[in-house]
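Morning, I've got a small favour to ask if you have a moment. I owe you a coffee for this, so here goes:

…
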Amino acid sequence: MTMKNIVYSLAQRYQSICTVLKHADGIAALALRCYLVPIFWMAGTNKFMHFQNTVEWFGNSDWGLALPFPYLMATLATSTELAGAILLALGLFTRLISIPLIITMFVAIVTVHLPNGWQAIADPNAPFANTQVLASTEKLEKAREILENYGNYEWLTSSGSFVILNNGIEFAVTYLIMLIALMVLGGGRYFSLDYFIKSKL
């Protein structure tokens, strides 16, 4: 068999695999949606249940975000997250709802997380560790010392090590990238109302 025939045979097999996988391309969009639904639902319901606190946090310049029109901004953020969770769960208007969710994530990145650097959880050994993360090492050691002396340390750490939250942009950027992917992919084949509506129309 010549090299040309081998290449042609491999290309045919690759094309056959792609044809089969085409029917499963909705799984990727479904996985992204299922991952994001509880995140936005929890964020939205938390804002809704403590709405007045959310408004104050959005508007306060001393300990909050100092955003203009805090009541409007809190309403938009809360409704976007709740509606986003519901629509992503159904796979309905997926590309459309991804846009305000992307804006919400971008605002969160710039106003809340960016001053803390990249890491969501402080780990001085990880890449992009800033001075805030490095300073957390001393706090973590002190907390560990207190727990070892005054608590049941083995029981407290049986599910994993203690960590210090750094609240950097890491998670928010991850969600932003996932939403951008959904804006391109849509709700996904077979697993979304978007697909069935489109097939009927």
In short: Residues 25-117+168-200 form one domain. Strands lie at 121-122, 164-165. The chain has two domains: 25-117+168-200, 118-166.
